[in-house]
């Protein structure tokens, strides 16, 4: 099996409790996030959500749908939650939330392997494409969460740690400041690529004395 190790992080100007509640809101998940085709609760779990089992069907930029079931194995609201995935994606996921001032940082660790034989067969060559697809899925999740909460999305980052037999771009974090993605240290901006371009709709306050990006209003130098 081919293994993949991703870390995605987002900064949102919202209370940690509000972000936690939104992350666990299955009813609105497919509405706010187009990458999720289905999110159906199979087992409710206890008061903290431990034991909750959910069936997901996800689709990224590739014409490819993957189905898996995720069971919450540990939960410490509103900061830490772990899950075990089984199906066409198998492995573990972990949500980590932390609030400083008015900003909540969300980090998602996704350590999985594919179980479809053809994906494993093609992994040595297609891994960069699969990683590109996963990057879109996870970064769009942050954008959808911000829209759902009605708050600005600040800095976002995606890192793909190299799996077996892979090197190159995988270890570089992809960052966003609301209106474009680029690989840190690469000197290559994602602004020219319509696939990587983030659709930023944040408004700039003309009375704000903070130095901000002219397009999206995200504070520079943070």
Query: With helices defined by DSSP (H or I, 4 residues minimum), what is the helix count?
Result: 3
Number of β-strand runs:
11
Classify the helix fraction into a percent range: 10-25%
Strand order of the largest sheet: 2-3-4-5-6-7-1-8-9-10-11
For CATH, the homologous superfamily is named as START domain
* Cα-to-Cα separation, first versus last residue: 39 Å
CATH architecture: 2-Layer Sandwich
What is the succession of H and E elements? EHHEEEEEEHEEEE
Largest sheet: 11 strands, antiparallel
Domains, number: 1
Top CATH class: Alpha Beta
Low-confidence spans: pLDDT under 50, at least 5 residues?
164-172, 176-222
Shape: globular
CATH topology (level 3) name: Alpha-D-Glucose-1,6-Bisphosphate, Chain A, domain 4
Integer average pLDDT: 81
Radius of gyration: 18 Å
Q: Strand-residue fraction?
A: 35-45%
Report the structural category. alpha+beta
